[in-house]
Amino acid sequence: MPDRSDPFDSITELFERLSRQLETAARSWETEMDVRDGGRSRFDFSMTQSSPSLDLADEGSEFVVTVDVPGYDTEDLEIRLSGETLSIRGEREHEAEQGGADEQYIRRERAVQSFNRQLQLPDPVEVDDVSATVNNGILTVRLPKREPSDESTSIDID
């Protein structure tokens, strides 16, 4: 009897491809939502814990970003500013096990956790004056606004 292919192989392949496309679309939607209005996406197809809550406030001379990061130490967090996009990443691992290898957990949910948030700022900021602090599980990033300049620059035409 000749070898026949499994009729479900093509269906399985189709579902895997669809799943990858949905994950890509969800990431795109999340980034677009964050960039467009500083909001959080309602689309979360990932199997991991959701990103921490984030607030962006305009306090006149500066923007203040506040992020809930309970359990994260300062060395667990990375903050980057690229143009007008603020990126905040965090990764933490559970503490080393105490009590030896024979200790058995009834339930263990605290493991490696990470997040990555990107936020488009409405206006340019003074990169050299940005500051960040963590206090009681709350990360506060202060981003002083760049003063508008009346200077004009001549641009040569080729």
TrEMBL record:
Location of the CS domain:
49-156
> Which positions, given as ranges, span the membrane?
none
UniProt keyword annotations, A-Z: Stress response
Q: Which residues form the SHSP domain?
A: 45-158
What does the sequence similarity comment in the record state about its family? Belongs to the small heat shock protein (HSP20) family.
Instruction: Supply the PANTHER family for this chain.
Output: HEAT-SHOCK PROTEIN 20 FAMILY MEMBER
Instruction: Write down what this protein is called.
Output: Heat shock protein Hsp20
